[in-house]
Specification:
This protein is of the alpha/beta class. The chain is 40% helix and 17% strand. It binds 3-isopropylmalic acid and magnesium ion.
Length: 371
């Protein structure tokens, strides 16, 4: 390896910097433990960047992100910046989406699993949720988020028309399909692809293409197709029937919040968004790692945010960004031990602070020690 891994940390807004602080502590600790050389730089993204520079993501931050081996993001946005409208594509109004396009991170991996110590914190009966282990593979650089044209116009009758376009090209569907099939090979070999091919043309292309890639390149992986509306019901009802859930940008966004229910809270969910297929033990440069939750303005500044989504995102960084999967397993085990000890954050019905949880995870990362 040539030099240390370069990490750009972008806390973002509200609870974003709070959970990124926790993530960075776990990052430094684990890197030392597993002998992974790292170099961390911090900068602004989102509303804080708007306040300082008049843009949600500066060219400088975009350039640093392109040069980094991995980017750790907290969360962006908040009421203060909601009404700001900047002309142009969504990449101008949202710093995170600009970053995703700059890095061409099309492969969003959003895992959600049940945790034994949290079974009773979910709305499920134990026998329905115990063992649920899902991976949403979300296309993250195309679709309705970025289709052109988009915008608004005032019609002759005085009505305002607002519009965006859901569009996909064959190669965009092919590459994300391969990511889902590859991921399934390392899991339980089952992909369920989601679309609205009954009403959307882009959904029909999606289904045909996923089907072809599956048949031609991954005949060993079981593939099902479901319409997105029914899929929400089926996954909510019996999450253990599913393994990898492959979806376009918008449907993947929706599904990745829904699956959080199996873990007990959205605050538990990590993500890795990569510019390539994830490879076991081979680092992928230029991924974005972020908790799936938002910036939670209502609880920011109180030190009570759940840092586990950010901490587990750091685990994903070790696995995919640095090719050190054992470090990811070690972080997951430390989290599990903390939960087992009953130390729970507010969103899981406990009263442990962000700092207490982080400290407990760090303690549990020591070999042979526990809380
Ligand atoms: C997510 C978020 C983002 C998205 C927002 C903040 C732009 O909901 O990462 O899931 O819609 O992609
Ligand atoms: Mg979302």
């Amino acid at each position: 390896m040539s030099g240390p891994f370069k990490i750009l940390a972008l806390g973002g807004d509200h609870i974003g910097p709070e959970v990124v602080t926790s993530g960075l502590e776990v990052l430094r600790h684990t890197a030392a433990q597993f002998d992974v050389p790292i170099e961390i730089e911090e900068d602004l993204l989102g509303g804080v960047s708007w306040d300082a520079h008049g843009t949600f993501c500066t060219d400088g931050v975009a350039a640093k992100a392109r040069a980094a081996d991995a980017v750790l993001v907290g969360a962006v946005g908040g009421p203060k910046w909601d009404s700001i409208r900047v002309d142009g594509p969504i990449t101008e109004t949202d710093g995170l989406t600009r970053l995703r396009i700059e890095l061409d991170v099309f492969n969003a991996l959003r895992p959600a699993r049940s945790w034994k110590p949290l079974l009773s914190r979910t709305p499920y009966r134990k026998d329905v949720v115990d063992g649920a282990d899902l991976l949403v593979v979300r296309e993250n650089a195309g679709g309705i988020y970025y289709g052109e044209p988009r915008g608004r116009e005032v019609l002759p009758d005085g009505q305002t028309r607002a519009f965006e376009i859901s569009e996909y090209r064959t190669h965009e569907v092919e590459r994300i399909a391969r990511c889902a099939f590859e991921a399934a090979r390392g899991r339980r070999n089952h992909v369920t692809s989601l679309d609205k091919s009954n009403v959307m043309e882009s959904g029909r292309l999606w289904r045909e293409t996923v089907d072809r890639i599956g048949r031609e390149e991954f005949p060993d992986v079981k593939l099902d197709h479901l319409l997105m509306d029914y899929a929400l019901y089926a996954v909510a009802r019996a999450p253990r029937n599913f393994d990898v859930l492959l979806a376009d940008n918008l449907f993947g966004d929706l599904m990745s919040d829904l699956v959080a229910v199996v873990s007990g809270s959205l605050g538990m969910l990590p993500s890795a968004t990569l510019p390539a297929v994830a490879q076991a033990d081979r680092p992928v440069k230029g991924g974005i790692y972020e908790p799936t939750h938002g910036s939670a303005p209502d609880i920011s500044g109180q030190g009570i945010a759940n840092p586990i989504g950010a901490i587990l995102s750091v685990g994903m960084m070790f696995e995919y960004g640095f090719g050190v999967a054992p470090a990811a397993r070690s972080i997951e085990q430390a989290v599990e031990r903390v939960l087992l000890a009953g130390l729970l954050p507010l969103d899981l019905g406990g009263n442990a602070s962000t700092a207490q949880i982080t400290h407990a995870v760090l303690l549990n990362l020591q070999p042979n020690s526990s809380l």
